[in-house]
């Protein structure tokens, strides 16, 4: 049997091979151009899904950021409220430090004090009100308080001086001596 | 054309001057002292304190005062009625770095009959201190303290109904002393 036919189709073919060729030849590759239907509408379902996914991600990110900010704001006022009285002790110009030392009574953190039940409710309500403040408002209020205290301390210092200087010429010892 | 321009110009000038006069009268009627004339001293001073708190800031500040703390409650009561707190304090390295001329614009404002000087302490060694009250129908509407020491100049101006009783009650807490001036009506300028 000549097998050349199997390699290069030369020589005499085997009838069995010819029969197989005929049977399988129907499935042979035929080169022809792609034929598309004339009216074709591209599907946009994939784009919708993609956009929805982006929107959902953005929404989730926004909700997450909002929750985080809310939690942060809820934490903020309490911390600042507790810190507020001690803020006078932060490094400041010399004069302010000197004046701040004169009223240590005011520097006691009020939130640490023991409270009765109704008072606690009032305090809680106050803290909740403070929570509603923005950070700028809190900062402004704290700065205003600090300035107010400084102004009152200066005023008191000067009034103390007035009292000292108006009272000092008449000493109690001299009075006693005169009476005696 | 020239006369029309002159006419318009003179009308504008009159309007501007009347506006300035109105502003000056309004300023003179308010217990708030104009302390801007002292600003140039900050360049010479080694330490400066400049506090300007208007009514809005006072109201903002008192929200943060605690009602549980008796001292803060007392201060809150004292300042809640105030319309403004203004302080200028200058500390100088050497003596004679400011003069009475610098103080003159402030003193001129205090010459207004509505202001009454209730305390005047003069001392070459310790400096001068003056306390002024502004009254309206037996109601205190303003307080001014001028302390002119050798190396320090301080002006405190409280605007609004200063409750001296409450101020006295702060004694020992904020160091605010009892002046003993609430029982005696301050003398007017004519009486002095």
What does this structure look like?
The complex is a heterodimer of chains A (180) and B (192). Chain A has helices spanning 4-8, 15-25, 45-83, 94-100, 117-131, 135-167, 172-179. With 180 residues, chain A is mostly helical. The longest helix of chain A has 39 residues, at 45-83. The model of chain A is unreliable at 76-93, 99-115 and 170-180 (pLDDT under 50). Chain B folds into two domains: 1-30; 32-169, no CATH class. With 192 residues, chain B is an alpha+beta fold. In chain B, strands 1-2-6-5-4-3 form a six-stranded antiparallel β-sheet. Chain B has helices at residues 2-29, 55-62, 70-80, 100-110, 164-169; strands at 47-54, 84-91, 115-121, 128-136, 139-148, 152-159. In chain B, strand 5 (139-148) and strand 6 (152-159) form a beta hairpin. The A-B interface holds A 81, 84, 93-96, 102-103, 105-106, 108, 110-111, 113, 115, 119, 122-123, 126, 130, 137-138, 140-142, 144-145, 147-163, 165-166 and B 47, 49, 51, 53, 57-58, 60-61, 63-69, 71-72, 75, 79, 85-87, 89, 91, 119, 121, 123, 126, 129, 131, 145, 147, 154, 156, 158, 170, 173-179.
How many strands in all of chain A? Answer: 0
Total helix count of chain A?
Answer: 7
Sequence of secondary-structure elements of chain B: HEHHEHEEEEH
Low-pLDDT parts of chain A are: 76-93, 99-115, 170-180
Report on the biggest sheet of chain A: none
What kind of sheet is the major sheet of chain B? 6 strands, antiparallel
Total count of helical runs of at least 4 residues of chain B? 5
Percent of residues of chain B in helical segments? 25-40%
Number of DSSP-assigned strands of chain B: 6
- Helix-residue proportion of chain A: 55-70%
Rg for CA atoms of chain B: 20 Å
Average pLDDT of chain A, to the nearest integer? 69
């Amino acid at each position: 049997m000549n097998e050349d036919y199997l390699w290069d189709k030369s020589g005499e073919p085997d009838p069995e091979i010819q029969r197989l060729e005929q049977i399988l030849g129907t499935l042979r590759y035929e080169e022809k151009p792609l034929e598309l239907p004339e009216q074709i509408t591209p599907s946009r379902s994939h784009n919708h899904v993609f956009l929805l996914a982006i929107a959902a991600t953005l929404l989730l990110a926004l909700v997450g950021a909002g929750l985080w900010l809310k939690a942060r704001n809820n934490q903020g006022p309490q911390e600042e409220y507790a810190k507020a009285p001690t803020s006078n002790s932060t490094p400041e110009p010399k004069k302010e430090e000197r004046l701040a030392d004169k009223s240590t009574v005011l520097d006691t953190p009020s939130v640490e004090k023991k409270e009765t039940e109704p008072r606690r409710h009032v305090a809680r309500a106050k803290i909740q009100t403070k929570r509603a403040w923005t950070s700028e408002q809190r900062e402004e209020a704290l700065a205003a308080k600090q300035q107010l205290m400084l102004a009152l301390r200066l005023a008191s210092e000067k009034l103390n001086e007035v009292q000292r200087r108006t009272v000092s010429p008449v000493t109690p010892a001299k009075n006693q001596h005169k009476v005696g | 054309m020239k006369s029309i321009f002159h006419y318009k110009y003179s009308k504008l000038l009159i309007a501007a001057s009347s506006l300035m006069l109105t502003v000056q009268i309004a300023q003179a009627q308010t217990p708030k002292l104009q302390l801007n004339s002292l600003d140039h001293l900050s360049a010479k001073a080694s330490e400066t304190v400049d506090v300007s708190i208007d009514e809005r800031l006072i109201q903002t500040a008192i929200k943060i005062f605690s009602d549980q703390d008796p001292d803060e409650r007392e201060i809150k009561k004292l300042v809640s009625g105030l319309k403004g707190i203004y302080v200028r304090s200058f500390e100088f390295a050497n003596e004679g770095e400011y003069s009475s001329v610098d103080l003159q614009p402030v003193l001129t404002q205090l010459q207004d009959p509505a202001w009454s000087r209730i305390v005047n302490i003069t001392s070459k060694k310790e400096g001068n201190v003056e306390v002024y009250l502004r009254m309206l129908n037996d109601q205190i509407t303003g307080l001014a303290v001028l302390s002119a020491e050798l190396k320090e100049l301080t002006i405190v101006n409280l605007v609004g109904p200063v409750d001296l009783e409450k101020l006295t009650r702060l004694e020992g807490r904020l160091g605010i002393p009892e002046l003993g001036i609430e029982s005696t009506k301050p003398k007017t300028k004519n009486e002095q």
